[in-house]
User: Fold this.
Amino acid sequence: MSELTALTIAGARDGLKKKDFSAAELADAHLSAIEEARALNAYVLETPERARAMAKAADARIAAGNAGPLEGIPLAIKDLFCTEGVRTTACSHILDNFVPAYESTVTAQLWRDGAVLLGKTNCDEFAMGSSNETSYFGNVVNPWRRKGANTPLVPGGSSGGSAAAVAANLALGATGTDTGGSIRQPAAFTGTVGIKPTYGRCSRWGVVAFASSLDQAGPFTRTVRDAAILLRSMSGHDPKDTTSADVPVPNFEAAIGKSVKGLRIGIPKEYRLDGMPAEIERLWEQGRAWLKRAGAELVDVSLPHTKYALPAYYIVAPAEASSNLARYDGVRYGLRVEGRDLIDMYEKTRGEGFGAEVRRRVMIGTYVLSAGYYDAYYLRAQKVRTLIKRDFEECFKAGVHAMLTPATPSAAFAFGEKGGADPVEMYLNDIFTVTVNMAGLPGISVPAGLDTQGLPLGLQLIGRPFDEATLFSLGEVIEQAAGRFAPRRWWAR
Assistant:
């Protein structure tokens, strides 16, 4: 049955169509794999009964000739997406046992197209983290290990559970959310493909909010083609979400294999950081060579306000988090800790319900929005954000089709290795990814090689607004040149 879990979405789709196996067999193979891999802590809730029922219905539709684009494809869903009748907690104690009475738009579209729910995946609490070490349900363990070592490594965050599930063959694909790199960074750390689409491409309705002007849903898969397949089902205008863009959704899969000859690829000089590891620089150089060999034209570009992106992001995101998380007060749903009066109940509930990182960001956000500091911090950060967006616009106006950068400043690191005494050390993991969110652009991380310790590294492609198709074409060039990587299955006993 392990052969079934090693399939791609495209391969499983073809196998189901030819009746080489059934959706029920495919679901059962993944459910067995999940049981064997609980040491990874990738899932916080498994839904075997629902998976089998959905797979049975998929088989019936296939037999009747009514198969959808994702018919019978087993997926994992980040615990930030509300799923009707299935516990959704954002991996926070404050949302203990919350069971939504509604379905997020993104997951509703996946089920509409025939996908099968395997369970909810672990993530950093309220998506706040770069290593999946802030979850109330404990750390997710990266399926990858350093060569000759057994030190547990982080899978990246916040969507670490989804990334680990796809990398370890515990799902054919998974959903994630990306606020400052939370799809692309864990994708790079786990050797998977992860795309953050243009802001507004996927509806945010029914997704637990972190920072509303930055959050965007996207897929994790093992190949670029699979990411294109999954994103098509996840995308589309949603009247329930006022930030959802009313633009056509192309057949992204048609971009796979399309020639990239003549495309102008920008290489931003600001991404060459002091002290950047030599192997990251070599990987970037290799990526440039692959694209040039495929016919793309490489041009040096400048994004002068990139150096301000990280500090501006860590003002804007906590400010929006502070506002969004005000709704968790112990009154209507989730955890309630009784107090002497209403104010005491609020304080005790929020103090006990939120973890340390969430409390830190709420306090930062409340501070920068407070009287006397709003203009000095939040308003200034928003002005910087406009300048960051303008930098990209100038490059695209000059004829650049996409940009190539590293995805992360390093490979996966060990638990507790970063951010212990200084949280800024952890925040620096987002240095290559936050500009994309600040500008609302699409970005994809594609596995591009292994470091000297045998860990995966990713390259990032940044595209023009709503031009994810070009990223898929370019990403497939890198994928074909680099080959595919899989971790050693140390967790399967």
About this structure: Residues 60 and 66 are 9 Å apart (CA to CA). Residues 2-262 form a domain with the Amidase signature (AS) enzymes fold (CATH 3.90.1300.10). The two ends are 15 Å apart (CA to CA).
